[in-house]
Amino acid sequence: MATRKASPRNKTKSNTNEEQTVDVKRRRTLKKETHIEYDSLEKYGYHFKNGKLVTIETDEPFEFNFYSDNDENQKRYESIGKLIDEAIFKLLESECHLKRVTVPVDPKKEERTSFVFVSDDLATADYLMVIIHGTGVVRAGQWSRKLIINEGLEIGTQMPYIQRARTAGYAVIVTNTNLNSFESPRFLRRPALRPIRGSGTAEEHGCYVWEHFIRSSHAKHVCIMAHSYGGAVVLKMASQFLKEFDQRVFAVALTDSPVTVYGRKVNRKVLEMLKERAINWVADAEDVNTDLGDSDCCELRSAGHTVHEWTSHTAIDAIFDYFAEEREQL
Q1: Residue 106: CATH number of its domain
Q2: Which of 77, 130, 160, 269 has the most CB atoms in a 10 Å sphere around its CB?
Q3: Considering only CA atoms, which of 189, 209, 236, 208 is closest in space to residue 129?
Q4: Co-location of 160 and 279 in the same domain
Q5: Would you give per-residue pLDDT tens digits along the chain (330 residues)?
């Protein structure tokens, strides 16, 4: 029997497929050697779907070990993290209906600025909730970048707090305490970090927010939710605006904040005033809200989780119950 010969057309198609396969393999090899910085999550092949960061093509979770070189993996992780910052900002606007407001509020021409997020009823609502994240790379709207990437928006962001606060009738201010400086172009040979006016440190930012947003808000009753180093920001605001703080702040919720350490140099009157209205839900294996005694400036309760970054998520129900109970007594 004669062997049927492949037509030239079939040969061309086969060769093209082989060449495409080789090109794909070559591109993959290159990607595993050097990180290429992209300007969108989609170019990295990721998006948020049902609150989770997954691959666009297959819905697979984020993979850190993408390259053979760990330094390249870290560069990729940090680049994706910065893109997630902007994605969260957009969600605060679109899903939580907050608006981004520039700080300082009176920027000079070409002055570098930061920003906060506020609800549109800041001038009319009777109650206000101020939300403060911890230290590190996190920006407004985040508790933990790691949790956002690996666990999702529900656990890693402040969105559940914002949404529940809005439902409960609170105006909301979301601070941005970690955006403190910028690299000055005037010193190209020796780059220098220059502080952003009003936000040079986390504490300075918190006090600027009090002076220009909380003070002028309509709310007579203010509650504060702060994670980790956010406790230091609360102490600074309480110290600098002691009388106003005492008159307007009816409850402070902290999550795994070492405020005893932060409060060592704080006036005793501030600590006594804060202790009357503050609870710190700390990392602990006991059930959520278990009484763990107290410290110099707050009551201690279990957050129901032993990992620091998880405490804001696991304590959320207990915190809103606490705010509701204190609010009823006003």
Answers
A1: 3.40.50.1820
A2: 130
A3: 209
A4: yes
A5: 444 444 444 444 444 444 444 344 434 444 557 888 999 999 999 999 999 999 999 999 999 999 989 999 999 999 999 999 999 999 999 999 999 999 999 999 999 999 999 999 999 999 999 999 999 999 999 999 999 999 999 999 999 999 999 999 999 999 999 999 987 765 556 667 899 999 999 999 999 999 999 999 999 999 999 999 999 999 999 999 999 999 999 999 999 999 999 999 899 999 999 999 999 999 999 999 999 999 999 999 999 999 999 999 999 999 999 999 999 999
Length of the chain: 330
- Domain total for the chain? 2
Judge contact between 218 and 122, C-beta under 8 A: yes
> 102 and 84 share a domain?
no
Q: Give 60's contacts (C-beta < 8 A, 6+ positions apart).
A: 54
Q: Is residue 1 part of a domain?
A: no
Q: Which of 54, 71, 94 lies at the terminal end of a domain, its last residue? A: 94
Would you state the torsion angle of the CA atoms of residues 287, 288, 294, 299, taken in this order, to the nearest 10 degrees? -160
And the tokens for 30? 């290159």
* 138 lies in the same domain as 51: no
Domain that holds residue 33: 19-94
- What's the DSSP call for residue 196? P
Same domain, 200 and 89: no
